[in-house]
Design brief:
It comes from Acinetobacter junii. By secondary structure, the chain is mainly alpha-helical. It has a domain of 117 residues. The chain has 30 helices and four strands. A two-stranded antiparallel ribbon has the order 1-2. Strand 3 and strand 4 form a beta hairpin. Helix 24 packs antiparallel against helix 25 and helix 28 runs antiparallel to helix 29. The chain is globular and about 100 Å long.
Length: 704
């Protein structure tokens, strides 16, 4: 939408408000959870924790939006900060958490907003958004003003500096009638600003309205601009409930009309004003509040196509979220409003996901092809979308190849990188493992950016994991350089021989060796490989007891393996039932692996603070074992003793512990095969009946 004369907008802005029926705006709500990347790169549904630097259905739509903006030459996406410490590294460059994309996305072409030396914090309350920059602008204006006496300048500047917290109630300034006219006007401007920041929009509007008639040029223009913001916030507040949710049905239409009118007035009065880009930007807010998605989409398209205009106001770090929330997540969304490759690509990728919901229907092949005319200027992008549809929706990977470039792409933009990645995924899907490995290897060798390097390293690492090619993961100049991929190989993929080779290799870094030592000792315990544990125990650092994770006294040990867990000093169950330290216990178990007390003692270690973390490892090894040996499950030890003919304290303790395995959730916390609640009740009745005087029986009030 071109803006040759802002007055042409006036009838549009005013008439559409009364002509439409306003519906409630849906609010996007997120839940906080543990965020980990999927290193298999095989997501088919939305996974915000595992986004890729390619146009892909499983990406968050905001990520795909940022990638498209980059290809349009408008945005630059800086590499994410990665986890550098190997032991607790979760994220590398790729995949990345979608939540970090906005902070990494910057303007490649600077917008025309009135840029100030002092930047404002990114804040969701529009009222507070310019608090810091407004302070700078006001003080700078006062300092250089020729009609304000020096002593009165100090007063005005000091009063503005007192306004240091937007969310705090700020006291109004007492205006001295002896001040010069200009000083009193600037003081009135401060009072209007104070009322604005105090959310008293009606009073603020009255003062700003008066100031639009003064002779001072800066005051006059700024007051006119501030009327846009006061009426915006005033209108917006009418739609916000007590929980902060906005309902567009409740927006006061008169205030909304005033807001849009103030935009028109400002742009007509100051066509080359200092705030024209910002004022034009508020149009999008008005279109959203008025539920005119057609105008909102058109305005964003115009902005994208006119980055050299004085009205250009897009912030690349914020635009993807705005598009996601106000267009695609809106109850007002209508596909017919999308007629541009940019928006249609975002929409298509969102609708090629493998959602497991009843009412979701992915876009069909015919629906996609019906968009062909909209992609006349970007045929490669359209062919890529068709390839994605064939791969994701139709499960026809061979056919998808027909829509990708025959020759290797240069990966000079994200579309080309997307084509390259999809081709490799097709090889994977077709089971052409050798071809896929060679393909990823070649692409990694040609990688020019950290995103390319991260993507191809992650794709290649799957094949190197299977081959147990440890040489690719170790050393300071390892082929697979991302610490999270090295950690994943060492702790989850490497077998006994490979772990030992990593420990012995001169190429391995200290962190790689230590990760291998901790993994080898942990897995030997989990798999009851006590002889192995004995042989490798000497690998522990001499100061192993100082390695206590985040509880370590020494700062440099906080992000290292918790070797202190292996320095377990044993425990006393009773005066007669005693457990030796872990090293002695494993020596005993290597000779008497079926001894009931020794196995109970190993269970004591496993349920202790030092050994408890091995339970998750036990679960992981059950799903995908990396070394041989039966996995220890203390729940099975208790059951074996209960089945025996002995009737002593050890038997009573096994009953007690077996019952406690299900406390208090009713979920088995001891490993092994779960037993029925009926069996747990029998155990409870038995310990109460046969061992009524034992401290264990007395302490049990329930069974679970």
């Amino acid at each position: 939408m071109k803006l040759q004369n802002i007055s042409i907008l006036k009838p549009i802005l005013y008439t559409f408000i009364t002509a439409i029926s306003i519906q409630a705006q849906s609010i996007y709500a997120g839940a906080e959870n543990i965020c980990e990347p999927n290193l298999h790169l095989d997501d088919r549904d939305l996974n915000g924790c595992s986004n890729l630097p390619v146009l892909y259905p499983s990406n968050d739509s905001q990520t795909n939006t940022a990638l498209l903006l980059s290809d349009l030459g408008l945005a630059e996406i800086e590499p994410m900060l990665i986890d550098q410490n190997l032991w607790d590294a979760t994220f590398g460059y790729v995949p990345f958490d979608a939540a970090n994309v906005s902070l990494a996305t910057k303007n490649k072409i600077q917008n025309q907003r009135n840029e100030l030396t002092v930047k404002d914090e990114i804040i969701f309350d529009e009222r507070c958004y310019s608090f810091n920059s407004g302070n700078y602008a006001f003080i700078n204006q006062v300092k250089t003003h020729k009609l304000i006496p020096a002593n009165e300048k100090l007063v005005l500047i000091n009063e503005r500096k007192k306004m240091n917290q937007c969310n705090n109630k700020i006291a109004l300034i007492s205006i001295d009638p002896n001040w010069s006219t200009t000083t009193r006007q600037y003081a009135s401007y401060l009072n209007a600003s104070i009322l604005f920041y105090n959310a008293n929009y009606s009073s603020s509007t009255k003062i700003f309205t008066v100031l639009t008639s003064v002779e001072d040029a800066w005051l006059k223009e700024t007051a006119q601009y501030m009327l846009i913001r006061t009426t915006l916030n005033s209108a917006y507040a009418t739609g916000v409930d007590q929980y902060g949710d906005v309902y567009l049905d409740n927006i006061n239409q008169n205030l909304l009309k005033q807001f849009l009118g103030h935009i028109t007035n400002y742009l007509n009065t100051y066509p080359n004003g200092r705030y024209v880009a910002s004022a034009r930007g508020f149009l999008r807010r008005g279109f959203w509040l008025s539920k005119r998605q057609d105008l909102l989409v058109n305005e964003i398209v115009w902005q994208i196509q006119n980055p050299k205009s004085k009205f250009y106001n897009l912030d690349m770090g914020q635009l993807p979220a705005e598009i996601d929330r106000r267009i695609f997540s809106s109850n007002s969304f209508e596909l017919k409003n999308l007629k541009d490759p940019f928006f249609l690509t975002i929409y298509n990728l969102m609708n090629m996901r493998d959602y497991k919901t009843e009412h979701y229907q992915p876009i069909t092949w015919s629906q996609l092809n019906a968009q062909k005319d909209f992609f006349k200027t970007q045929p490669e992008l359209f062919n890529y979308l068709r390839a994605i549809h064939l791969f994701f929706i139709q499960n026809k990977p061979k056919d998808a190849l027909n829509y990708l470039p025959k020759s290797n792409t240069k990966n000079s933009n994200y579309l080309q990188l997307s084509q390259t990645f999809l081709k490799g995924q097709i090889f994977e899907k077709l089971g052409q493992n050798q071809t896929a490995e060679e393909y990823w290897t070649n692409q990694l060798a040609q990688a020019r950016t950290l995103y390319q390097k991260g993507l191809f390293e992650t794709a290649l690492s799957k094949h190197l994991n299977i081959k147990q090619d440890y040489s690719a993961f170790i050393g300071k100049q390892a082929k697979i350089s991302q610490p999270n991929l090295q950690r994943q190989f060492i702790t989850q993929q490497a077998n006994i021989d490979i772990l030992d080779k990593i420990i012995q290799s001169n190429q391995s870094t200290v962190d790689q060796k230590q990760a291998a030592i901790h993994t080898l000792l942990s897995k030997s315990l989990v798999h009851q490989r006590f002889d192995l544990f004995q042989r490798k125990y000497s690998y522990l650092p001499k100061n192993a007891n100082e390695y206590k994770g985040y509880s370590s006294e020494k700062e440099h040990l906080k992000n290292k393996p918790v070797f202190a867990n292996f320095i377990w000093n044993g425990s006393n169950i009773t005066a007669q039932l005693k457990c030796d330290n872990l090293l002695t216990l494993t020596q005993q178990l290597s000779k008497l692996s079926n001894d009931p007390l020794l196995n109970i003692c190993l269970g004591e270690f496993m349920r202790s603070e030092q050994g408890y973390s091995l339970q998750q490892l036990s679960y992981d090894e059950q799903q995908k074992p990396t070394i041989g040996g039966k996995i220890f499950a203390r729940g099975e030890i208790y059951k074996d003793i209960i089945k025996s003919s002995r009737k002593d304290d050890l038997y009573a303790y096994a009953l007690y512990r077996a019952i406690q395995c299900y406390a208090p959730s009713g979920i088995n916390d001891c490993g092994g095969i779960e037993v029925t609640k009926k069996t747990r009740k029998q155990w409870y009745d038995q310990i109460k009946r046969d061992y009524p005087t034992s401290t264990w029986a007395k302490s049990l009030k329930y069974y679970w």
